[in-house]
Amino acid sequence: MSAADIGLIGLAVMGQNLVMNMNDHGFTVAVFNRTTSKVDEFLAGAAADSSVIGTHTIEELVASLKSPRRIMLMVKAGSVVDHYIEQLVPLLAPGDIIIDGGNSLFTDTERRVADLADKGLLFVGAGVSGGEEGARNGPSVMPGGNREAWPAVQAILQGIAAKVGDGEPCCDWVGNGGAGHYVKMVHNGIEYGDMQLIAEAYDLLRVAGFTELEMQAIFARWNKGVLNSYLVEITADILAYQDEQGRFLLADILDAAGQKGTGKWTGISALESGIPLTLISEAVFARCISAQKEERVVAAGILPGPTGGFSGDREQLVADLERALYAAKIISYAQGFMLLAQASRDNNWQLDYAAIALLWRGGCIIRSAFLGDIAAAYQSNPALPNLLLADFFSTAMGDAQSAWRNTIATAIGLGVPVPCLSSGLAFYDSYRSANLPANLIQAQRDYFGAHTYERLDSPRGEYFHSNWTGAGGTVSSSQYDV
Questions:
Q1: pLDDT value at position 2?
Q2: What global pTM score does this model have?
Q3: What are the residues facing 29 on neighbouring strands?
Q4: Inter-residue contact 390 to 384 (CB < 8 Å)
Q5: Exposed, middle or buried by CB within 10 Å (0-12, 13-18, 19+), for 478?
Q6: Catalytic residue among 38, 110, 184, 200
Q7: HEC profile for the chain?
Q8: Contact residues for 113 (Cβ-Cβ < 8 A; gap 6+)
Q9: Active-site residue 329, yes or no?
Q10: Is pLDDT at 20 greater than 90 in this prediction?
Q11: Catalytic pick from 110, 119, 132, 191?
């Protein structure tokens, strides 16, 4: 048996497509699947007449690989990854490499990098985005982990990645430890926000009386402007799709959205880091409430709401909605990069935000035209504290804010829920406010719990306590933040 360049475990859709992508780029791949009949089916089907090598045991897979051995796991995140690592470790030699290409939690990747390093093995946590089409034709790949592994896997991962510009691969080393999977997690959080924002725009147009074909034309037109992106593009396709009976399929799809956890992880990480990831968190909660379909149907028959239809200017509504969607999309990315910046500081990852934006320009689900503008903002100022402060984006927000407010007012008047459009605007208004009502919150905390407060006329870090009732005493609580 000829030696393979890389082994891959897990022949579900993503795994199979990555294998064929590697094969197309001249790499010999050995494959294994827990249900070994899938190996034979793959070799007889999609991989027929290819150089793919089928194996039926882990031992056979490892024996077929060149040194240093490179093995990619495309299996369910969690314990399944650990199960295969445990099986592989006794069969590997120092310097061999395990690559986890699934959606693993970044803390699991951190642990695996350290554990395998103690055994002389190299571990790479590589976020892979683009779905089955991206896996087959070129995904965005976000590798991190043990830096020593990069020279041995770079040619393969960059070879199969999407290409943009003058053939630049949407793949480069992200950082140590769990950095690659963290960046992929935030990518997915932004994806949640993008998808919910588009869904809210669709819902507002639908309630305002636009037909499927009218909406399809609107999204197709938007995709030629500032909203140019993969998700807007496929939304136009979805709106126009009809089944065998000539019915628009979208209307027959149950309004209950699923989720696999990466959006939730992003929100949890934001809470732990103290980053106001409001728009993306609302997108996660929107999926949660959509899952309560039966309860919502009951509530619809009990709880009153607006009864009038839309009677305004249809063209103005569409124009305002385009700008509102663009502004809220900027907020989603700005919040995502805020979270990346905090994680980089907390974990000493030294993330390159311009490079990350460039990784997302092709292959991945959130690829969009203005990722180039994000990269340019960070290239101009790598220490930029927030995307909104870059000239390009502050100007864009100023241009869009009136239309954004009009859109939300229209949605409220029609009773259309727009949690991401509205939370994005609330974040924008909070971030641009020199004074927020948090002084009252801090006074309340000091009143009932002696938690103290800082004063505008004193240096930061100097704390005061007031005896608000005359009976509370002068003893104050210690200072700490969670």
A1: 59
A2: 0.92
A3: 6
A4: yes
A5: exposed
A6: 184
A7: CCCECEEEECCCHHHHHHHHHHHHCCCCEEEECCCCHHHHHHHHCCCCCCCCEECCCHHHHHHCECCCCEEEECCCCCHHHHHHHHHHHHHCCCCCEEEECCCCCHHHHHHHHHHHHHCCCEEEEEEEECHHHHHHHCCEEEEEECHHHHHHHHHHHHHHCCEECCCEECECCCEECCHHHHHHHHHHHHHHHHHHHHHHHHHHHHHCCCCHHHHHHHHHHHCCCCCCEHHHHHHHHHHHCECCCCCEHHHHCCCCCCCCCHHHHHHHHHHHHCCCCHHHHHHHHHHHHHCCHHHHHHHHCCCCCCCCCCCCCHHHHHHHHHHHHHHHHHHHHHHHHHHHHHHHHHHCCCCCHHHHHHHCCCCCCCCECCHHHHHHHHHHCCCCCCHHHCHHHHHHHHHHHHHHHHHHHHHHHHCCCCHHHHHHHHHHHHHCCCCCCHHHHHHHHHHHHCCCECCCCCCCCCCECCCCCCCCCCCCCCCCCC
A8: 123, 125, 145, 146, 176, 177, 178
A9: no
A10: yes
A11: 191
pLDDT of residue 369: 85
86 is catalytic: no
Q: What tens digit of pLDDT does each residue of 303-351 get?
A: 999 988 999 999 999 999 999 999 999 999 999 999 999 999 999 999 9
